[in-house]
Amino acid sequence: MKKISEISEKIIQGDIRAIARGISLVENGGEEGEELLKNLYVEGRSYILGITGPPGAGKSSLINLLIDKFKEHFNKVAVLAIDPSSPFTGGAILGDRIRMQTHTGDPNVYIRSMASRGHLGGIAGATKDAIKVVSAGGYDLVIVETVGVGQSEIDVVKLADTTVLVLVPGLGDEIQAMKSGIMEIGDLFVINKSDKPESEKLATTVRWIVDEHYKDSEYKPPIIPTSVYKNEGIGDAVRDIIKHKEYIYRTGIHTNKIKLRIKDDINSLLERKLNDFIQKHIKYPEKIEKWVEQVYRGESTPFEIIKSIHENLIIDVKEEI
Amino acid sequence: MKKKIRILIAKPGLDGHDRGAKFIARALRDAGMEVIYTGIRQTPESIADTAIQEDVDFVGLSLLSGAHNVLFPKVVEELREKGAEDIVVFGGGVIPEDDIPFLKKKGVQAVFTPGTSIKDVVDFINKKMNEKN
C-alpha cells in the first residue's frame, strides 16, 4: 500500500485511481482511513445533491440524464450510488452504475458504487467521508443516490444540500403520502414515470400535502413530472434544483447545514476517540466476557458494572481545554 | 474492519447472453463480496475505466460469442496502460481448452469453463487476495 500522504497528494491533484483508493480506505475504516481524512478534511466546498426514493423509482436512470444537464453548471460531477449489503453474508450486488455507464470514460464524471455495509439510514456509514474525498479531488457537484428507501430512511438529509425525493405512481393511496418521514424531507419532488396515466393523480396528492406543510414558508418545494423513458422534464428538474441551491446559499441555510455537519464530525470523532480511550483504560477486551458471565449468572447487572467502572475511572482533564 | 473484496463482473463485446454473468455475480455476493455489475455490451476501455473508478480487486469477464481471444487481452492491456495492472483479470464462458494457454500468456489469470463449480471461483479469488496482501 502506498503511503497515505502520497495518496492524499494525488487525490488533491484529481487522480482517479487515488480518489478510488481513498474511498476504499475510508470505507474500510481503521487508521489509514482516518489518516487520509486528517489530510483532506474539507466541508462545504462542493454542492451536494441527494437523490432518494423507493426501489425502482428510476433514481439511477434519472441521474444519468441529469449529469448531462449539470455539466453546464458544474466542472466535475461525482456520483456516489449506494446499494444495500446482505445482512447475512455482507455481500452486495451494486447495480446502479449499469444505468449510467454512458458517462464512464468522461474525465469529468466519476461514478462510485458503495454498499451500505449494515448502515440502515439509506446511505452507507462512510458516505460522508467519501464525499470529503471527492470534494478534495475537485468535484464541485457530488450526487448521492440512496438505496431504495421506504418510509423512514432519511439520513441523506444530513449530508445533502438539496434533497430530491423521486416518487412514482402505483405505490399506495394518499394516506401513504400523508405519513411522517420520507415525505417531509424533499426540497424537490420529482414524479417520475409521468408517461404513466396514474402519475397526474400522484402529483395532485403531493401538491396538496406540500402546500399544507409549507403554507407559511418562503420556500415551497416544486413538484416536477419527469419521464426518463421519454426524456421529458429533466431540464425542469435541473432548473429547480439550481433554484434551490441559490435559495439556500442566499438565505444562510447552506451555512447552517455546513455548521451542523462540522458539529456532527466533531461529535462522532469525539465519541469514537473517547470510546477507544476508555476501552483501553478499562481493559475492555479481557473483561467483557467476565462481565457478561456475571450478568448471566445474576450476580450483577449492566448498570452495576458501568457504575463501578465509572467510579474507578479517573481522567486527568487539563484545564486549558 | 476487514477489507471487503470488490469485484467487477462485465460482459465485453456484442454478446447479450448474460445469464452466466448474473449467476456468478449472485454467487459471489453470497460469498460475501461486493459485486459491481455493469451489464452487457461494454467496451474494454469502459470496463477498465469502471474497474479503476470502483477500485475493484478483480475483473471477471464473461463471454459466449467467441471473441475472447481479442477482448479479454484487450481489457488486461487497457488496465496496464492506465497503471492498474494489479487488478486481477479472469474470464469465463464458452472458451475452448486450446485457447486457455494463450489467454493466460496474455495476462488473464484464470479461465473458468462451463461446469466449473462456484467454489473453484471463490477459492481462486481468495487465494489471489492472500497473495496481494
What is the compact description of this entry?
The complex is a heterodimer of chains A (321) and B (133). With 321 residues, chain A is of the alpha/beta class. Helix content of chain A is 47%, strand content 13%.
Topology:
The complex is a heterodimer of chains A (321) and B (133).
Chain A: H1 4-12, H2 16-28, H3 30-40, E1 47-52, H4 59-70, E2 77-83, E3 92-94, E4 109-115, H5 127-136, E5 141-145, H6 156-159, E6 162-167, H7 174-178, E7 188-191, H8 199-213, E8 223-225, H9 234-251, H10 253-281, H11 284-296, H12 302-312
Parallel strand pairs in A: 1-5, 1-6, 2-4, 2-5, 6-7, 7-8
Helix pairs in contact in A: 1-2, 1-3, 2-3, 2-5, 4-9
Chain B: E1 6-10, H1 19-30, E2 34-37, H2 44-53, E3 58-63, H3 68-81, E4 88-93, H4 100-105, E5 110-112, H5 118-132
Parallel strand pairs in B: 1-2, 1-3, 3-4, 4-5
Helix pairs in contact in B: 2-3
Describe the fold and architecture.
- The complex is a heterodimer of chains A (about 325) and B (about 130).
- Chain A has twelve helices and eight strands.
- With about 325 residues, chain A is α/β, with parallel strands linked by helices.
- A seven-stranded parallel sheet of chain A has the order 4-2-5-1-6-7-8, sandwiched between helices.
- Chain B has one domain (about 5-130): 3-Layer(aba) Sandwich (Rossmann fold).
- In chain B, helix 2 crosses helix 3 (about 70-80).
- By secondary structure, chain B is of the alpha/beta class.
- Chain B is globular, with a radius of gyration of 13 Å.
- The model of chain B has no long low-confidence stretch (mean pLDDT about 90).
- Strand 3 (about 90-95) of chain A pairs parallel with strand 2 of chain B, so a sheet runs across the interface.
